[in-house]
Amino acid sequence: MAWSVGAGLEGRGVIVTGAAGGIGKAVAEAFAVTGARVLAVDLEQRAVDDVVAGLEGSGHVAAGADLRDLASHALLVERARRELGGLYALADLAAVLRRRSSVVEVTEDDWDFQHDINLKATFFLGRQVAEALVEAGRGGRIILFTSQGWWTGGFGGSVVYASTKGGVTSLCRGLARTYGPHGITVNAVSPGQVETPMLMTGLDMEVYESMRKATPLGYVARPEELAGPVVFLASDHASYITGATINVSGGFLMY
């Protein structure tokens, strides 16, 4: 049998949130190539319909959902069980960034909006999926997304975003300890700079260039360069990795 980075994923159900975004779409596409069945989730139904239409294989499902509505999480898990033939993994990429030019411009609404999606929804959806995996009794995988900001603290007006990602890193470790005895691994991927609309919106090009130059590999990542680590963490190859935060930053961070 040929070696595959996605070993063990064929025919298994995977939820990918933020699936219409740059990295999320690349992750959904990568899971589809492994033979997994993907429930692609994002805010706009039309956007995830387009993503699913382009996925390799069959049996994929598109779901428009606002993850701030915690009641939607149980519905997503139930759809995965029913329409994908079961649920094995969650790749939770849904996140928002409101970039401000300085800390003093950050509003309470900025704080609430980013924390509600990036941290609060991550906890409750992760728990919903984990409890479903416990009930099924066959183990599973949860992959969360943090950011280089969890380590650097962010820059200027992105400090609130960074704080949510610091929370995700701690959350990953806590969930890993909680659900490890059930054969469920929980890990996080920490990107550096990635060529996505989220990065580029409101970003001064001088700042962009300074980040690029500070990256030893010398360039800003393409979304598909984040998909491989996610698929690996969901695969059989990563069965003894849990509570880890995988640094995928081109050397921008080293720890």
Notes on the protein architecture:
The chain is of the alpha/beta class. The protein has a single domain, classed as NAD(P)-binding Rossmann-like Domain (Rossmann fold, 3-Layer(aba) Sandwich). It contains 9 helices and 7 strands; from the N terminus they run βαβαβαβαβααβαααβ. A 7-stranded parallel beta sheet has the order 3-2-1-4-5-6-7, with helices on both faces. The longest helix is centred in the middle third of the chain and has 29 residues. The protein is globular. The N and C termini lie far apart (36 Å). The mean pLDDT is 93.
What is the secondary structure topology, with strand pairs?
Layout: E1 13-17, H1 22-33, E2 37-42, H2 45-53, E3 61-64, H3 71-83, E4 89-92, H4 108-136, E5 140-145, H5 149-152, H6 159-179, E6 184-191, H7 197-200, H8 205-213, H9 224-234, E7 245-248
Parallel strand pairs: 1-2, 1-4, 2-3, 4-5, 5-6, 6-7
Helix pairs in contact: 1-9, 4-6
Report a brief summary of the structure.
The protein is α/β, with parallel strands linked by helices and 255 residues long.
CATH fold description: Rossmann fold
Using DSSP, what is the number of strands? 7
Strand order of the largest sheet: 3-2-1-4-5-6-7
What name goes with the CATH superfamily?
Answer: NAD(P)-binding Rossmann-like Domain
CATH class category label = Alpha Beta
Uncertain residue ranges: none
Structural class of the secondary structure composition? alpha/beta
The fraction of residues assigned to DSSP E strands is 5-15%
The helix-strand sequence is EHEHEHEHEHHEHHHE
CATH architecture grouping: 3-Layer(aba) Sandwich
| End-to-end CA span | 36 Å
Main beta sheet, described?
Answer: 7 strands, parallel
Count structural domains: 1
C-alpha Rg (nearest Å): 17 Å
| Helical segment count | 9
Mean pLDDT: 93
Q: What fraction, in percent, of the residue positions are helical?
A: 40-55%
Molecular shape = globular
